[in-house]
Design a protein that fits this description.
It holds the Pfam family DUF2231. The protein is mostly helical. The protein is built from five helices and two strands. A two-stranded antiparallel ribbon has the order 1-2. It is elongated and about 60 Å long.
Length: about 150
């Protein structure tokens, strides 16, 4: 994917990612800690987790194309390196969502997961959500610095 309506696809997709990854992370943590929220929000949250897991490599691919079009400027290198790591941060969101779906479905069948199991899932969701949100910030910050302090100044 190279352009959308004449604009670099990466520039547009990145805005979707910057919103959806922290939203997904927050919803996962909420679902992990609050059973009433899990009952209402786990399915949309799981769909968001799957969506960002698919959209992340698409965004990275579009970024690689855009970087090539810019002539591989050195100021973009750090952003590209961090962006390539992003899938390692969104995949745990998907795993956490799957674990929460499992706990939710067991609860619905009258076989609730034990408190220790739910606590472990909550810890995984908190760690995955926090890490994904932090990495999203790092990637976005490095991209903004590359644009405002680098590419546009040349």
């Amino acid at each position: 994917m190279s352009t959308i309506n004449g604009l670099p696809a990466h520039v547009l997709l990145v805005h979707v990612i910057v919103v959806l990854i922290p939203l997904t992370a927050g919803l996962l943590i909420l679902c992990a800690l609050w059973p009433a929220a899990r009952a209402r929000l786990i399915w949309p949250t799981a769909a968001l987790a799957a969506g960002v897991t698919v959209l992340t490599p698409v965004t990275v691919f579009a970024g690689e194309w855009f970087q090539k079009q810019l002539g591989f400027p050195p100021v973009v290198d750090q952003h590209a390196r961090l962006g390539h790591q992003m899938l390692y941060f969104v995949a745990p969101l998907l795993v956490s969502a799957a674990l929460l779906v499992f706990a939710h479905m067991r609860q619905g069948r009258g076989k609730p997961a034990g408190r220790a199991v739910v606590a472990v899932i909550a810890l995984i969701a908190i760690a995955a959500g926090g890490a994904a949100a932090w990495q999203t910030y790092r990637v976005g910050d490095s991209g903004a610095h590359a644009v405002w302090n680098g590419v546009l100044n040349h």
